Amino acid sequence: MHVVLATDGSRPSLVAARQFMSFADVAKVDEVSVVAVVSPLATVPFANELGGDRKDHPRGLSFREEAHAATDVVMAEVLAWGVTQVHRRVLSGSPAAEIVRLAKESRADLIVLASGSGGLSDTILLGSTAQRVQHSAPCPVLVSRPKH
Amino acid sequence: MSTSSSGSSPERCGAFWIAFAAGVTLATITGLAYAELATKFPQAAGASLYVSKAFRSPVLTFFITICSLSAVFAASGSLATGFARYFGSVFGLVPALLVTLVFIAVLTIVNFVGITESVVVNMVMTVVEVSGLVLVLVIGVIVVARGDADFGVLTSFTAEGNPVFAIVAGVALAFFAMTGFENAANVAEETINPSKTFPRALIGAMLTAGLIYVLVAMSAALVVPVDTLAGADAALLEVVRADVLPGPVGVMLTVFAVIAMVAITNTTLVSVVTQSRILYGMARVDVVPAVFAKIHPTRRSPYVALIFSAGVVAALLVLGEVLSRLGPDVDLVGRLATVTVVFLLFIYALVIVSALKLRGEGETKDSYRANTPLLYLGVVGNAVLLSYVVIDDPGSLYWVGGLLALGGALYLAQRVSGNRQRAGAATDGGA
Q: Which residues, given as ranges, of chain B have pLDDT below 70?
């Protein structure tokens, strides 16, 4: 099966990937796409908190490179888990729309992502990325929520 | 935004549309330099990174970044004050300072929540914005069609003193209206086939916007006596007040004021995004304290940078209010717009120099190349304008100095806290 792992550079997104790997059968996963979406219109288009970046930033801060660095961290863990076909997809636009589009185009069998807090503003104003992906995904969606 | 009048000399003559045309031309030349650099280095977008590539001087790079940041702070303040004037024309009574502070606070919260990412909201706001300008143009066309227009006004220079100076002052104002390069360069990284698309999109957008501004300026000059226009708090409201359109003037005035408020809100939103993004970027590359790179865990917004920026803009607004209570009346919209323009002219001149200096570096066979004599003209034009703006309003230099000092203070804070961190890391075994 082909799995899409989405990361927004946050710790919970890495936890989501780890949770998936903790119970999934690696023998049945033949392909993983690690996707990060840069949103040019957001105040911070991509915030990487996973490390893996070069600290010296020779060309200054690039949000695309930040997204690249975040996918590096997730991809390394997936490779270590034992999947050989791991792709990197750094996309640009609205996160939910881009994740769904990628899943459609690559005929993914599962999308894995973390949910934000789902606070009041999320519910009323926008709906979180996770909610919107669930709403229009072409395949099953695994949403990881922080455990309290 | 051209929807506010600064009360300086160019509006006192009908030919101020020429000033707008000159400003748009100079801005377009600067745009050419940006287009060339953005296609050569799509990954390194923005003035500070181009300057860093061209001069390889960390001090100059830091300085230019602080200039960009200060320019946006001043622009936000100017826009907020402009918003309060239109707000006052509809609701009256509410103190302007209160309106500006609440305005900045609300926009900061909106950015924290993240609605700016919505393409739909952006489109709706842009449509409203353009409809306001179309309204002014329609009024102009009606006046011309009635045969009431005196075209002589368009070529009359009645400003006291040198007409050249009058034009130059207007150019500076027009410049304020055309300040989207940085934002455009920021998305260059995201553009498909940037060497073709980017120059075309940037120049196309600038010429379109420029044409609209010039037409609006001409229309305003034809409809309203130029003296009235110059004395008005919100110049374009006077065009509507001329009672050319069918329907009661009161309603039309309110409608237009609301349109203007939406337009100003849109522009201010962009500057609030830009200022916190610059701060965040500086913190990430360790030139200001790392606290500015703090991201809210669920909203994914740089909340410290957002709050700090709002604080700086609020301080500018309060300071402006206090100063105009104490001494002579300061026109805060105009003053802060001038401060913005001083910073921008300096940045733009340096970007054009960088473009010339980086010739022969990073070029591919299809990268865009701006016309060289035009670029030299651009450097001279920006420099002339900069010196004029400073001579015309020396008081703005205090504000410029104050904002630069703030940047210096941030740098020192980073040096002190950075050293402490490094010392701590050393005792932990160099981790």
A: 1-16, 42-45, 115-119, 152-194, 226-227, 229-235, 329-330, 418-431
Q: Is residue B2 part of a domain?
A: no
Closest CA to B36 of B337, B368, B270, B304: B368
Quick one: pLDDT at residue A51? 79
From chain B, pick out residues whose CB is under 8 angstroms from the CB of A92.
Answer: 190
ipTM: 0.80
For chain A, how many structural domains are there in total? 1
- CATH of residue A67's domain is 3.40.50.620
Domain count, chain B: 1
Interchain contact B43–A (C-beta under 8 A): yes
- As given in the structure block, the two tokens for residue B93 are 């009574």
Owning domain of residue A74: 2-144
Q: Which of A43, A63, A125 to mutate to test the interface with B (most CBs of B within 10 A)?
A: A43
Name the E strands within B332-375: none
* A65 contact residues in B (CB cutoff 8 A): 43
What pLDDT shows up at residue A57? Answer: 53
Please identify among residues 261-280 of chain B the ones whose CB lies closer than 8 Å to any CB of chain A: 273, 276-277, 280
Backbone angles phi, psi at B312, to 5 degrees: -65, -45
Nearest C-alpha in B relative to A125: B115
**Is residue B63 within a helix (H) or strand (E), and if so which, with residue range?**
helix B58-91
Per the domain annotation, does B1 fall within a domain? no
Return the pLDDT at B311: 95
B90 lies in some domain: yes
- With 0-12 CB in 10 A as exposed, 13-18 as middle and 19+ as buried, what is A70? buried
Please give the DSSP secondary-structure letter assigned to residue B36: H
User: Cβ B277–A43 below 8 Å, yes or no?
Assistant: yes
A5, containing H or E segment: strand A2-6
The answer to whether B122 and B287 are in contact (CB under 8 A) is no
Sign for the CA dihedral angle at B118, B119, B120, B121 comes to positive
CB count in 10 Å sphere of residue B334: 21
CATH number at residue B329: 1.20.1740.10
pLDDT tens-place string over residues B63-87: 988 998 898 899 899 889 888 988 9
Q: Which residue among A43, A57, A65 sits closest to B302, beta carbon to beta carbon?
A: A43
* Contact predicate B274/B287, CB 8 Å: no
Measure A116 CA to nearest chain B CA, in Å. 5
Boundaries of domain holding B270: 9-427
Kindly report the pTM of this predicted structure.
0.81
DSSP reduced 3-state for A8: coil
